[in-house]
Structures are given as structure tokens and as C-alpha cells.
Design brief:
The protein is mostly beta strands. Helix content is about 0%, strand content about 55%. The strands form 2 sheets. Strands 2, 4, 5, 6, 9, 10 and 11 form a 7-stranded mixed β-sheet that branches. Strands 1-3-8-7 form a 4-stranded antiparallel β-sheet, with no helix packed on it. The mean pLDDT is about 95.
Length: about 110
């Protein structure tokens, strides 16, 4: 059974940084794609960033240049480095892979 566990959320000020981590408990991690999504209250869940098995990346225009997705195949980890945070980044952030969602981690950015 695949499990994804996010951590690293919290409160940040505008312009600050946070690093989210996603621990994936599954074999064949290195062969799969992963993504980060977010959902703000009253909004639909939206794709933030994705990374392929070959470490190619893609970003939502709203975070491009500020967020960086990465992976560590030796540790079965996926990361989201978030810099220059804005209040609009406030949301629950979810890790996704193997058609499975993590439980989410709250990110709140104060103005």
C-alpha cells in the first residue's frame, strides 16, 4: 500500500520561505512521477509543480521562479522549496504519486 506523508508546513511571513517534504513508502519510487498540489478554502485543488522520474520539472505560472520541486531517489523523498511566499500561497499542500494523495500540510502566509 502506497503512503505519502507531507511535512514542513507552517506559518511564514510575506517574502519568507518554507520547505515541504513528502515521504513516500513504496518500492520503485525512482520510476514514478510526483507532484505537489494545493487547495485554498473555497477553491479547487490546483497543480503547483510536478517532477518526472527523470527529474524534469513543470510549474504553475503562479509559482514559477519562486518554488522548486526536487526528489531524492535514495531516500524516497519529494521536496517543494517555496521562496518569496505571498499571502495567495496560503493553502493546504498535498503530495501526489501512484494515484495516491497525502494527507496534506497547511501553509499560511501572513501579510
Amino acid at each position: 500500500q502506497v503512503q505519502l506523508v507531507e511535512s514542513g508546513g507552517g506559518l511564514a511571513q510575506t517574502g519568507g520561505s518554507l520547505r515541504l517534504s513528502c515521504a513516500v513508502s513504496v518500492s520503485y519510487f525512482r520510476f514514478r512521477n510526483f507532484s505537489w498540489w494545493r487547495q485554498a478554502p473555497g477553491n479547487q485543488r490546483e497543480l503547483v509543480a510536478e517532477i518526472t522520474s527523470g527529474s524534469s520539472t513543470n510549474y504553475s505560472p503562479s509559482v514559477a521562479g519562486r518554488f522548486t520541486i526536487s526528489r531524492d531517489n535514495a531516500k524516497n523523498m519529494v521536496y517543494l522549496q517555496m521562496n518569496n511566499l505571498k499571502p495567495d500561497d496560503t493553502a493546504v499542500y498535498y503530495c501526489r504519486g501512484f494515484d495516491t494523495w497525502g494527507q496534506g500540510t497547511q501553509v499560511t502566509v501572513s501579510s
